[in-house]
Amino acid sequence: MKRGFMVNHRARSKFVRRGLRNYFEYRDLGIRRATHGKVVAHVIRARRGKAPHGHWHRHDCRVQFVYVLKGWAVFEYEGVGRVRMKAGTCFYQPPNIRHREIRHSPDLEMIEVVAPADFRTRDAEKPAARKSRGRRSRG
Q1: Which CATH number applies to 10-123?
Q2: Between 25 and which of 15, 86, 108, 122 could a Cys-Cys bridge form, CB atoms 3.0 to 4.6 Å apart?
Q3: Rounded to 5 degrees, what angle do the CA atoms 114, 118, 123 make?
């Protein structure tokens, strides 16, 4: 097998409850190991009976994007406002943008890709209110 090449089958992978947020479960896709820590990718799904806490935070990373596989989630972003993400939505979060998750459907599943794999998440103050309306997604 070529060095760095990897395959991750759903049947052989498990969701774990430890991860960045206690209201999610994470299934590692093996990308961190294959890229020697340059990138992490995982499937995230909502934990039954757990709701997002809505705390503002930011991530020290170079790249972060998410693709929603199933369900929906409402996020709020500094300078953007509230955005509803649903199945088929792909979104990119610029490095260090203040954001929070407000709510999600019980069946939410997403794929998240972040570089580098070992990034820091920091609590953040609520951004100052904007006078103009935020940009919102349609759909």
Answers
A1: 2.60.120.10
A2: 15
A3: 85
